[in-house]
């Protein structure tokens, strides 16, 4: 099956700016993120396809190569990955690591396993057998480019034989077939900053795939998935927590303990608090990723009405109702004033 155009995947034009590409990627990454589409294989494939397209178009050199040669610009890299994979199969260099991280609200350190093309241990990344020399490429005559005639025009392209190097190895390394790198699984420690959100992209410099024949290694990009918390939900840098209180506490007021990320805290429930009321604890939320302070903890009050009353409790509530003398509460009075026309 033919690959889709990377610009089409991101929904942008070929003259889109870097910022337009970044915005389009972020929007679609949220839409297709596996955490939002559990068990949806189509969404998972779209998320992976999206990551591949963004990797190609977010870096100027890769984008330029793609604009010139399309998907063929990356064929050599894919062949190298196949050669290094051996019996393990083809390893996609743009794999998205969807490890679910805990502790992202406060920051943490995680160790992940990454299968990638690392420097060949046999030749030390040189790509050649010991004592081997370089020879001039016969295809391009050492120029690194070949000319292709198209009518009255001649187009210079990277030599497919020497890959633009102009020279070839006399005796390529038997372990890596002259590429200078082989597939290997490595363990990498990552520092997860406080305040990251699901779908964020973390860059680990120098932990990507090894360069061609001893060249510098690329970077590793990790897409973060933040595990949902059983108590807190996040809204921007604020945290929201629903707390049950009794009817008596809501009516008379009380001080209760609530959980925060740093431990317990005390909050005051004012007398007459209504169901769904929001109370706020300043700076008990998420630290802003750019360092602009810290969000708040918003406590949403759930008034718990007793479901099973004994005879003594029922008698007391009946006595309370009598003391109210049939007077409606302000909210009820307001509602029924507005609803009068529907009852006449």
Q: How far apart lie the N and C ends?
A: 68 Å
**Spans with pLDDT under 50 lasting ≥5 residues?**
76-102
Number of strands: 16
Structural class: alpha+beta
The run of helices and strands is HHHHHEEEEEEEEEEEEHEEEEHH
Instruction: Please describe the biggest sheet, giving its number of strands, its sense, and whether it closes into a barrel.
Output: 4 strands, mixed
Backbone CA Rg: 31 Å
User: What is the name of the CATH topology of the domain at 232-342?
Assistant: HSP40/DNAj peptide-binding domain
Principal-axes shape call: elongated
* CATH architecture level-2 label of the domain at 232-342: Sandwich
Residues in helix, %: 25-40%
Beta-strand content bin: 25-35%
CATH class of the domain at 232-342, named Mainly Beta
Task: Outline the structure in words.
- By secondary structure, this protein is an alpha+beta fold.
- Among the domains are: 1-96, DnaJ domain (Helix Hairpins, Orthogonal Bundle), CATH 1.10.287.110; 232-342, Urease metallochaperone UreE, N-terminal domain (HSP40/DNAj peptide-binding domain, Sandwich), CATH 2.60.260.
- Helix content is 25%, strand content 27%.
- The chain is built from 8 helices and 16 strands.
- It has helices spanning 6-10, 18-32, 41-57, 60-69, 75-85, 247-252, 311-323, 330-339; strands at residues 100-101, 108-119, 134-136, 145-150, 153-158, 167-169, 181-192, 201-204, 220-223, 225-226, 232-235, 238-246, 254-260, 263-269, 278-281, 297-304.
- The strands form 7 sheets. Strands 11-12-16-15 form a 4-stranded mixed sheet.
- Strand 11 and strand 12 (238-246) form a beta hairpin.
